[in-house]
Here is the input.
Amino acid sequence: MRKAVLLVLALAVLAAAVFLVRGFSHASLEPYAAIRALHSSPAGLQARFFGTTTIAIDDGATRIMTDGFFSRPGMLRSMFGRIAPDAQRIDRALEQGEVTDAAAVLVAHSHFDHAMDCAEVADRTGAVVVGSESTANIARGQGLADDRIRVVKGGETLVLGTFTVQVFSSPHSPDLMFPGEITAPLRPPVRGSAYREGGS
Here is the structure.
């Protein structure tokens, strides 16, 4: 009986260790290698999906990107630890996606899984970060200059190179976590809960 209890305890410790390692590690994009291909329309418009909510759209003259989230901290780290942009993962994703420049990074809202990497991506591509005042405070906290940040509220029409983008306000999904605004420059590493929604 004692050996059985020790075996069960050992398996429980092993399972907990695996859970913790997986929970604090980055999610891998390798299972999606087959769908990394660039998709083109007959008119030459191309879209490349990078996972989560990140899409690069390119017409051959101008490239714009939604969100630009590549760091993907593990679930447990996001919930209980402190998170920050991962420069190596951002660089690797941009290199693999052949993204060297962009006119803008359009951020849907300021939760970390949309906005955490926006300033780093803008810095590497020459883009302007477009989003709410909360998103602007994320970019400011990472040192992006004010002339590279455009605050929008909804109703604006932006001309970004060859693209015309209409901005509109939208409710977040009903299960909103971390509501509210980011009212001062946010300097990572911080808890995932510091990335308030800030308007969508």
About this structure: The mean pLDDT is 87. Residues 2-24 form the longest helix (23 residues). Helices lie at 2-24, 75-80, 87-96, 112-115, 118-125, 133-141. The longest strand covers residues 46-49.
